[in-house]
Amino acid sequence: MSENLLPGEGEAYFYGDFFGQEESDRWLASLREEITWKQEPIRIFGKWRMQPRLTALYGNPRIPYTYSRLEMRANPFTPTLAEIRERLMAFCGEEFTHVLLNLYRDGRDSMGWHRDNEPSLGPLPLIASVSLGDTREFQLRHYAGKKPKIKLPLTHGSLLLMKGSTQTHWEHQIPKTAKQVGERINLTFRVIKA
Ligand SMILES: O=C(O)CCC(=O)C(=O)O
Ligand SMILES: [Mn+2]
Q1: Which of 51, 56, 138, 151 has the lowest CB atom count within 10 Å?
Q2: CA 106 to centroid of ligand 2, rounded, Å
Q3: Which domain holds residue 170?
Q4: If you measure from the C-alpha of residue 46 to the centroid of ligand 1, how many angstroms do you get, rounded to a whole number?
């Protein structure tokens, strides 16, 4: 068992070598090809712009999912996604219905401060976040106080679990970096309450 990274409210657990090197390499290569990656527009402070990364949503197509005010239609799980989902369900004991995928092409791609607090996730969501490819720094900060910042390098084959009231009290981001970094794929498995 890993220790809770969050002081106070919320729970986050990190498992650096959750998946093996061979399967992580295989999944990175297959997801690169079998996922239909898209760059979607997003509205920030009233302005429309393109998201600085590629995204995709897979899962149960009968359960609709609204993310960042974008209604996304899920594609059915691919064989690779089904394989990863099985492993996470065995570990977490949770029936994940959806996975949101992000492809960060290089250090200019990013995801800004946010909480995964869509009403469809329920008040205490379990989010299982799998990282493949180059390491990027994940940051957490308290939503009300905006500090202190917790910094966590998300490595190839790692798993981060966020649960309990984390999404109420903490926000997270993947900042841009000037470091020379290659592609990274992140998968966040979620349970959408229909
Ligand atoms: O890329 C990551 O590790 C974070 C992704 C994330 O926060 C999200 O998809 O909501
Ligand atoms: Mn998130």
Answers
A1: 151
A2: 19
A3: 11-190
A4: 22
Tell me how far the alpha carbon of residue 102 lies from the centroid of ligand 1, in angstroms: 7
Which residues have their alpha-adjacent CB atom under 5 A from ion ligand 2? 116
3-state SS track over the chain: CCCCCCCCCCEEEEECCCCCHHHHHHHHHHHHHHCCCECCEEEECCEEEECCCEEEEEECCCCCEEECCEEECCECCCHHHHHHHHHHHHHHCCCCCEEEEEEECCCCCCEEEECCCCHHHCCCCCEEEEEEECCEEEEEEECCCCCCEEEEEECCCEEEEEECCHHHHEEEEECCCCCCCCCEEEEEEECCCC
Domain assignment present for residue 6? The answer is no
How many domains does one find in the chain? 1
Domain CATH code at residue 171: 2.60.120.590
For the full predicted model, state whether its pTM sits above 0.85: yes
Q: Is the CB of 99 under 6 A from ligand 1?
A: no
Q: What is the pLDDT of residues 16-65, one digit of tens each?
A: 999 999 999 999 999 999 999 999 988 888 999 999 999 999 999 988 88
